[in-house]
Amino acid sequence: MTDTLIRPGAACLMHGMAERLGADVVRAATSGEISSQELADMETRCGECTKHDACILWMLDHQGPQERTPDYCLNTQELNYVRAVQNQLAAE
């Protein structure tokens, strides 16, 4: 057992944030845009975050497409990367 406990629902929060940004992380992992390990790491990072309550409230207040994540999101860089790659592929 590890010292770090992942809080229940972390994967849901990460996937919800990805959805708000228009980043399909499941498709990214299955198509090779990111590895399955990178997706698992993103879910783990979200689980280790201490801002779950703030994240839930942010997502409730920010329905639909968003340009950016809240400042405290630990997956901002990865989510922006997935969105950029998928937008570039869609434009081709």
| Biggest β-sheet description | none
Question: How much is the average pLDDT?
Answer: 90
Beta-strand percentage range: under 5%
Rg for CA atoms: 13 Å
Stretches where pLDDT is under 50 for at least 5 consecutive residues are: 1-7
**Helical percentage:** 55-70%
Architecture overview:
- The chain is mostly helical and 92 residues long.
- It is 63% helix and 0% strand.
- It has helices at 10-21, 25-31, 36-48, 52-61, 76-91.
- 21% of the residues are buried.
- Mean pLDDT is 90; it is low at 1-7.
Short description:
By secondary structure, this protein is an all-alpha fold. The protein has helices at residues 10-21, 25-31, 36-48, 52-61, 76-91.
Fold topology:
Elements: H1 10-21, H2 25-31, H3 36-48, H4 52-61, H5 76-91
What structural keywords apply?
92 residues; mainly alpha
